[in-house]
């Protein structure tokens, strides 16, 4: 089967034929229909995340159809494969509903092969059944951008005025969830990023502007999707007393030092790591009531490098997705 391989971080992905791997008792073989291109893929590709499996097939926003294996799904069922590929179920984190923090966890497209390929193998216990209706490429961004965004949104509690810093794949889905909950959304983008700002306004953000522009009012919480550490003190300066700044990315540049005054007043900073299966069950149940629409730019599998380049330059409007079959 055809796949794109990362031999070593910093090198372009290369197309290769891979032998079908055998499947274990809880595993299913999946024909990949679409796979989202996440910023994390870019961090792995560029060597900003430690110790990937090598050679590696990237991709952890997989939508496909079951070909064989397992007992939970029937052949032909549509499933989603997320970032969390496996957790031990035995450590103190797993036993307390925090499998996202499991030190033994395995991650799709990072420590095991992912979805930049015609076929993939996944542990069925960590896959999500997906609804009929939307096309594969419309669902793919939900598997990470949607899930991590949802987890980050939950950590903002009941914050009414929500700032989203970095308006890409995740933020544009979170904005829709937040607006459906009656919150007010403020989108903060790179200076002059008219595309991201217009997308934010189209989706219902009441304000969209660059990091170089003053916000029209205080925020109750902020979620940082952009991997830029200097945004942490900036967002702390924008949230009101008791406000929380949630960092949703897996990687961020160093956070510059800042005066304690910015944190004073019971403001807090928190990161979001990975996801739990319960997050997914909750999100997909929510979406059955209030669907969100993913703005997607599609690319053929062979153009994954181009998609990653566009992500690096910040020129993808919404989410980038590879269409595979
Ligand atoms: Zn564990
Ligand atoms: Zn991701």
What string gives the helices and strands in order? EEEHEEEEEEHHEHEHEEHEEHEHE
Shape: globular
Distance from N terminus to C terminus (CA atoms, Å) equals 12 Å
Ligand set: zinc ion
Give the averaged pLDDT, no decimals: 97
- The whole-angstrom Rg is 19 Å
Tell me the fraction of residues in β-strands, as a range: 25-35%
- The residue ranges in which pLDDT falls below 50 over 5 or more consecutive positions are none
* Structure classification: alpha/beta
Helix content: 10-25%
**Number of helical regions:** 8
Provide a brief overview of the structure:
The chain has helices spanning 39-45, 136-139, 145-154, 169-180, 194-203, 231-238, 277-289, 304-313, and strands spanning 2-5, 14-17, 27-37, 62-68, 78-81, 84-86, 106-107, 119-123, 128-129, 161-165, 184-189, 207-210, 219-224, 239-247, 268-271, 296-300, 319-323. By secondary structure, the chain is an alpha/beta fold.
Key descriptive features of the protein:
325 residues; alpha/beta; six-stranded parallel sheet; 8 helices; 26% strand; globular; binds zinc ion
Walkthrough of the structure:
The mean pLDDT is 97. Strands 3, 4, 5, 8, 9, 16 and 17 form a 7-stranded mixed beta sheet that branches. Strands 12-11-10-13-14-15 form a 6-stranded parallel beta sheet, with helices on both faces. The protein has a two-stranded antiparallel ribbon with strand order 1-2. α3 (145-154) crosses α4 (169-180). The chain is globular and about 55 Å long. With 325 residues, it is an alpha/beta fold. The chain has helices at 39-45, 136-139, 145-154, 169-180, 194-203, 231-238, 277-289, 304-313, and strands spanning 2-5, 14-17, 27-37, 62-68, 78-81, 84-86, 106-107, 119-123, 128-129, 161-165, 184-189, 207-210, 219-224, 239-247, 268-271, 296-300, 319-323. The chain is 23% helix and 26% strand. Bound molecules: zinc ion (ZN) (2 copies). The site of one zinc ion has 8 residues, from loops.
């Amino acid at each position: 089967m055809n796949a794109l391989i990362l031999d070593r971080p910093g090198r372009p992905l290369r197309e290769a034929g891979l032998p079908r791997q055998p499947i274990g008792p809880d595993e299913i073989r999946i024909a990949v229909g679409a796979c989202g291109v996440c910023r994390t893929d870019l961090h792995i590709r560029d060597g900003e995340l430690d110790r990937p499996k090598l050679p590696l097939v990237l991709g952890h926003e997989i939508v496909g159809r079951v070909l064989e294996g397992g007992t939970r799904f029937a052949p032909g069922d549509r499933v989603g494969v997320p970032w969390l590929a496996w957790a031990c179920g035995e450590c103190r984190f797993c036993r307390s509903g925090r499998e996202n923090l499991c030190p033994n966890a395995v991650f799709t497209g990072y420590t095991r092969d992912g979805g930049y390929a015609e076929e993939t193998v996944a542990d069925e216990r960590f896959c999500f059944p997906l609804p009929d209706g939307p096309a594969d490429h419309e669902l793919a961004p939900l598997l990470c951008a949607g899930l991590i965004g949802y987890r980050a949104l939950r950590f903002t509690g009941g914050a009414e005025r929500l700032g989203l810093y970095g308006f890409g794949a995740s933020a544009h889905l979170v904005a829709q969830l937040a607006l459906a909950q009656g919150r007010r959304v403020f989108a903060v983008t790179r200076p002059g990023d008219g595309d991201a700002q217009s997308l934010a306004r189209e989706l219902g953000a009441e304000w969209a502007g660059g990091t170089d522009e003053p916000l029209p009012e205080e925020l109750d919480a902020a979620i940082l999707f952009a991997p830029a550490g200097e945004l942490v003190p900036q967002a702390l300066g924008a949230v009101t007393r008791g406000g929380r700044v949630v960092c949703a990315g897996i990687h961020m540049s160093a956070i510059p030092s800042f005066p304690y005054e910015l944190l004073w007043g019971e403001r807090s900073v928190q990161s979001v790591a990975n996801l739990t299966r319960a997050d997914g069950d909750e999100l997909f149940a929510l979406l059955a009531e209030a669907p969100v629409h993913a703005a997607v730019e599609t690319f053929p599998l062979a153009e994954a490098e181009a998609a990653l380049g566009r992500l690096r330059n910040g020129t993808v409007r919404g989410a980038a997705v590879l269409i595979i079959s």
